[in-house]
Structures are given as structure tokens and as C-alpha cells.
Amino acid sequence: MSFVAQFHARRLVIRGVLRAPGRLYAADSTKQGSTGGFEPAAAVPNTPSPFQMTPEMIRQQKKSEEATRVPLDKRGYDTKSLLVAFGRKCETKLPDVDTLSWEELFRLNGQKLDKMGLTVQERRYLLWCLEKFRQGEDPKVYAREPQPKKTQRGWGPPIRKKTVPIKP
């Protein structure tokens, strides 16, 4: 295989078009054609076999494994006390917190929390807190209350409170 053919084969492998550089040319094509290069293979399938994992599949598997990682070090927390430490009344938003095990808590994902009835903001906050705890941070450092509503709109005047006249 010429240098140029090897270069293009490697480029296609890097881009993910081919799985291996040897599949670009037929195995028995040692004869040089009229162009001076090797004859290309008849057909190169770009679809992987059912038993071959693509890089995308490997990345997804690693992500799912990292997301379901259960920390062994509880650092003095149980399920309910950890949710209390997260704040925002997380312990009241999840049903059956008393029966929820440590493994079940850290195996929660967005779909399961959605079925439990949590809003998007509550789901995102809870999953963010669980990931921070997995990384070894203390909930007292990163747990925070939601931002209050704004009282100023842009550069204009502040939002006025509605005044109710007092009846004598």
C-alpha cells in the first residue's frame, strides 16, 4: 500500500468511517492497476456487526456506569439526612424516603424522578447534588437555596408591590 493510500485509510479510521485501515483495500489486491495504486475493495460496509461496539456505544456505557456509581463512603449520612443536607425540601419531594435505600438513591435518573412527579428544576438540582456527593464534596459547601425572584427588571424602575387600600 502506498504512502498516500495509507494516509487516507488512517484519516478515514480517525473520522470513524472505517473500523480498520486494512478494510479499505482487498486482501488479495497486490496487483497495481493502471493508475499505479492498489485496486480498492469491492464493498466496504460502514455498519458495525451486531457484536462490535462503536465508540459512541462505549462512551454511552461509560456515562451510564459513572452516573450509577454508588459511593461506599457515606461520611455519616443516611438517605434522609443526605436529602435534608441538600436543602430545598428534597426529603419531602421524594416518596417513601424512609424506605429508600442508599443504592436506590444513587441509581435515580431523570426518567425515574419524572415518574415520581418532580419538576425539571427539582430533578436537575437533586441529580447535581448527588453527582457532587459522588465526587467527594460536602453537601454543606454546595447545597444552596433557589434564587429569589427579581425585584428589578433591566434598567427600568423596580417592580412595584400591589397596595391594597385599608378599609376603615
Automatic annotation (TrEMBL):
> Boundaries of each Small ribosomal subunit protein mS41 SAM domain copy?
79-136
Primary subcellular site in the record, as a coarse category: mitochondrion
Write out the entry's keywords from A to Z: Mitochondrion
One cellular component GO annotation, for this chain's record?
A: mitochondrion
Give the Basic residues compositional bias ranges.
159-168
Q: Which residues form the signal peptide?
A: none
Q: Where is this region: Disordered?
A: 140-168
Q: Where in the cell is it found?
A: Mitochondrion
Q: Which InterPro entries match?
A: Ribosomal_mS41, SAM_Ribosomal_mS41
Q: Could you say which protein family the record assigns here?
A: Belongs to the mitochondrion-specific ribosomal protein mS41 family.
Name of this protein = Small ribosomal subunit protein mS41
Q: From what organism does this protein derive? A: Serendipita indica (strain DSM 11827)
